[in-house]
Amino acid sequence: MADSNSASTADASWQQTWGSSDFIKRWANKSGWQAPIREVQMAMVLRMIPHLIDEPIRILDIGAGYGALAAAVLRDRPNASAVCLDASEAMLKLGNERNRDLKDRISFIQGSLETSDWIKSVEGTFDAVISARALHHFTENQRRRYIFKEVYGIIRDRGCFINADNVRASTKSLGERYRRARDEYLDQFVRESSGGKTNLAEVRAASPSTYHGPHNNGYLEEELAWLREAGFEDVDCFWKFTTMVVYGGFKS
Ligand SMILES: C[S@@+](CC[C@H](N)C(=O)[O-])C[C@H]1O[C@@H](n2cnc3c(N)ncnc32)[C@H](O)[C@@H]1O
Fold first, then answer.
1. Distance in angstroms (rounded) separating the CA atoms of residues 11 and 193
2. What b/e string do you get for 172-196 counting C-beta neighbours within 10 Å, with b at 16 or more?
3. Is the C-beta atom of 91 inside 6 A of ligand 1?
4. Handedness of CA 66, 110, 40, 159 (dihedral sign)
5. Who contacts 24 (Cβ-Cβ below 8 Å, separation ≥6)?
6. Any residues with CB less than 8 A from the CB of 127 and at least 6 apart, and which?
7. Could you tell me if the CB of 134 is within 6 A of ligand 1?
8. How do the domains of the chain map onto residue ranges?
């Protein structure tokens, strides 16, 4: 585990990022130059939920932020309902503001995934537990291993856990190749969609900084092994673009 000094440093940095409403406003309004990749990533989460589209399923989004992923699932599934859990009060406030049209089907709960106590704040069981871009934020990388077990315990039979996240390239040279491939892909997208008026470097330079500390990404193979260890079946990486992934598993 992290020592108490690094834990308090992490806590201070959290207060300046996800704990700060100014930071969150900047983060949520950022132009999103990774949007074309993120869109496919999110679509893959929606498509991997195994239930029929009109089933009244109950969803839990962990590290939900303002609930963008949960809201996308609810817009796709007219009879579904969602609970969104996040540690940041400011994010949850934004979630309530941005999802007024879904207010009868979505609720926001404050809780930190850093310890297993979060389980007590979400009541009952779920058909699908989903997450996006959140589970790499832990100060202690092994924490995800235990979260997978905690999640398995609250998933109903026929349910699933789907995580859209970032992983670590398995070697330094692969990491560099991935970075270049992603930037070339996005640069072409920005040039084409702007009719040649701008490029990725300019869009990036114009985006406000939303740096929020080092990311503690895991290795994909290890994440999948932890899912199997937790009890999930049909575990796989369902989609991958460089170091951006969608992986998960099912409960029979
Ligand atoms: C990059 S944002 C992603 C938000 C959302 N899932 C999305 O894709 O828009 C990361 C989120 O993780 C949340 N987070 C960070 N540490 C957390 C923790 N220990 N417990 C719960 N949420 C946490 C932050 O508050 C933030 O909302």
1. 40
2. eeeeeeeeeebeeebbebbeeeeee
3. yes
4. negative
5. 18, 88, 90, 91, 94
6. 49, 51, 55, 57, 58, 59, 155, 156, 158, 159, 160
7. yes
8. 4-169+214-250, 172-206
CA 65 – ligand 1 centroid, Å: 5
CA–CA separation, 65 vs 87, rounded Å? 8
Index of the ligand 1 atom closest to the CA of residue 19: 25
**Cβ of 251 less than 6 Å from ligand 1:** no
**pLDDT reported for residue 2:** 39
pLDDT at 11: 66
Q: Determine the Cα–Cα distance for residues 106 and 83; give it in Å rounded to an integer.
A: 6
- Within the chain, which residues score under 70 in pLDDT? 1-12, 29-32, 139-141, 211-214
What's 4-169+214-250's CATH class? alpha beta
Beta partners for 161? 129, 249
Pocket test for ligand 1, best of 14, 17, 18, 129 (most atoms within 8 A of CB): 18
pLDDT of residue 30: 66
Does the Cβ of 65 fall within 6 Å of ligand 1?
Answer: yes
Between CA 224 and CA 234 the distance in angstroms is 10
39/19 Cα distance (integer angstroms): 26
What's the gap in Å between 191 CA and the centre of ligand 1? 31
Half-sphere exposure of 243 (CA within 13 A, CB side): 23
Residue 3: its pLDDT value, please? 42
Radius of gyration of the chain (CA): 18
For the Cβ of 72 lying below 6 angstroms from any atom of ligand 1, the answer is: no
Specify whether the CB–CB gap between 114 and 2 falls below 8 A: no
The two structure tokens encoding residue 61:
């989004």
What are 150's two structure tokens? 């905690």
